[in-house]
Amino acid sequence: MVLVRYGEDMWERILKMAEVEELSFDPHEVYTEGTITRLAESASKVVNIPLDELMNENGRYFMNFLSQYNYDAVLKVLGRDLRDFLNGLDNLHEYLRFTYPKLKPPSFFCVNESRTGITLQYRSRRVGFISYVQGMITEIAKVYFNTKMTVEMVNETNEESVWNYVMRLHFDNKSYEARDDHMPVPSEVFFEVFPFNIVFNRGLKVVKCGRATQQAVPGIQGSLMHEVFVLVRPLIEFTWDAVMLHTNNVFEIAVVEKKDGKKKREVSRKRMSSMTANAVKFRGQMKYMDQWDAIVFLGTPILYTKNEIMRDVSVMANLGLYINDLSMHDSSRDLVLAGDQQSAELKEALEAVLNLSSKLFQEEAKSRQLEESMCKLDEEMKRTDELLYQMIPKGVAERLRSGTSAIDTCETFDDVTVLFSDVVGFTNISSRLQPLQVVDMLNGMYSVFDELTEKHKVYKVETIGDAYMIVSGCPTVTKFHAAFVAEMGLDMVKNIVKCVDPTGQTPHLRIRVGAHSGMVVAGIVGLKMPRYCLFGDTVNTASRMESDGTVGLLVVSVS
Asked: Which residue ranges does the record assign to the Guanylate cyclase domain (predicted)?
């Protein structure tokens, strides 16, 4: 949405602020929730739009994104009208789980339906997406059902890290009507058609169950539902009232394993995933039966392998089930048989994928090595540039790289300021020290001066022995050259106290500093060891100002 409405430059600013590397979204890639949240918060600041409003717009725009990957085809057939669509919204994620097996979907269910709208309850472990959901639902109502909808937030709570939002959706619910009663069906026929049924009363006691259910879960008759099963979906408490409110939702229940001879009565949402990973699961519908004053669960076993991708007959064997236990009116039998027949082909395909993955891994390793080599090359080039810029000004060096000859870099500068400094009594000090001590002394002093050159925007021309030469006004022309050099000279005198005299004759080194302004000729001299040199009377005069100057003072000429 940001790219389309605000442009690529704005998107790059958002990525930088969110500390996210350049990326292009892949619909089959799994991204961390933190990434999406950081991007949204950064986008809100960059485009100057409130976060809730931005997320709402993004939810609306997401409908266009879905159409690019044919998910809109599913949305178009999810419900004949808007009320049916909203009642079946929770079932959409069952379809998406085939594409995204590790998906932990939110839960949607409708209550208090009337002629003027529906109350929608949205539950999710993800925080900050309520405005996104509101924008998506209102856009669906507008695009697919030509219906204007307004959303009113009724309540917002958090329990065990699950966010619960209650919204009233106001729209013209013209398709709302009372359902006519259907023809009665004898109970023996009903239980034969649905072998995996479970009938329980208001106290959640199992009063009847199908023959196949008894095979899969022995001893279930007479037990309490919440003692035998944990409710995986939807995200509600396993009570009579809660189930009655959500009969339009797909229910998924898992058998709770026995522990220390007792069944687990209370299961937190955080532990549910680990407890139900390998448990017997059923998926189906909860239907209230008026004549029985009971709820019947009409489901089928989830015959998946651990990764929930392929049906497996070995799962049936572990459950003590057989093909003829499955219903004939749905596709359960066909799916199980087809899955077993395709297992050999899938194994071959898996081996091919593993071989391809191995090759890709090798290529990726080579790519990483190349990337590391390129990074090292960049580091070496930066070091080379730093060394080059110490001998030659950056602007002059760039001209040489572009093909300009050394002689063509020579220029006349009418107004520059040159400064010289040297150490008082350097010859006497050097005679008392070892060569390495002299080098350490000069290195310490030059390090102090080099930091000052960056501060005062002057260029260090060269150092010869204890002499230090700087210039301002070339190669970068400035009318403030004299002021820059004067401030530099005063700072040199002030900071020389940081440089200790290693002979102990004085507390610190002492220097003379002299400066002069005038015209110079500057350019590159030398081939094997090229240097940026200055020539002219200005250089000679500045040197004399230093040599004839006073210790601890900056001496300048009248010019």
From this structure: 417-546
The H or E element spanning position 230 is: strand 229-233
Q: What's the domain range around 22?
A: 1-49
**Which stretches of 116-161 are assigned E, i.e. beta strand?**
117-124, 150-159
- Cβ atoms of 117 and 170 closer than 8 Å: yes
Specify whether 312 is located in the same domain as 438.
no
Q: Are 429 and 530 members of one domain?
A: yes
Q: What is the tally of structural domains in the chain? A: 3
Gap between the Cα atoms of 346 and 203, Å rounded:
46
H, E, C per residue of 362-393: HHHHHHHHHHHHHHHHHHHHHHHHHHHHHHCC
Residue 285: Cβ within 10 Å count:
14
Q: Is the pTM of this model over 0.90?
A: no
Last residue of one domain, picked from the residues 298, 322, 341 = 341
* Burial bucket for residue 557 (CB in 10 Å: 0-12, 13-18, 19+): middle
Same domain, 414 and 314: no
Rounded Cα distance between 542 and 559, Å, is 11
At 335 the three-state DSSP class reads helix
DSSP H or E stretch at residue 334: helix 332-341
Q: Which residue stretches of 229-311 are H helix?
A: 240-245, 269-275
DSSP structure class, residue 113:
E
- Say yes or no: 547 and 413 in one domain: yes
DSSP letter for each residue of 420-485: EEEETTHHHHHHTS-HHHHHHHHHHHHHHHHHHHHHHT-EEEEEETTEEEEEESSSS--TTHHHHH
CB 395 within 8 A of CB 475: yes
Nearby residues of 154 by Cβ (< 8 Å), 6 or more positions away = 119, 166, 167, 168
Contact call for residues 225 and 202 (beta carbons, < 8 A): no
Task: Yes or no: say if 238 and 206 are a contact pair by the CB < 8 Å rule.
Answer: no
In whole angstroms, give the CA distance from residue 109 to residue 121. Answer: 5
Closest CA to 418 of 372, 355, 513, 485: 485
Is 390 a member of any domain?
no
Per-residue pLDDT of the chain (559 residues; tens, 9 = 90+): 666 677 777 778 878 887 777 556 666 566 676 777 888 888 888 888 888 888 888 888 887 777 766 667 777 777 788 888 888 777 776 666 666 666 677 888 888 888 899 998 888 888 888 898 899 899 888 888 889 999 999 998 888 778 889 999 999 888 776 555 566 777 777 777 788 889 999 999 999 988 888 878 888 888 999 888 988 888 788 899 888 877 877 888 888 865 544 444 444 444 445 444 556 788 888 988 888 899 999 888 876 544 444 445 666 666 666 666 666 666 565 555 555 555 556 567 767 777 777 788 888 888 888 888 888 888 888 887 777 777 778 888 888 777 778 787 888 999 999 999 999 999 999 999 999 999 999 999 999 999 999 889 899 988 888 899 999 998 889 999 999 999 999 999 999 999 999 888 888 999 999 999 999 999 888 777 778 889 999 999 999 999 988 898 999 988 6
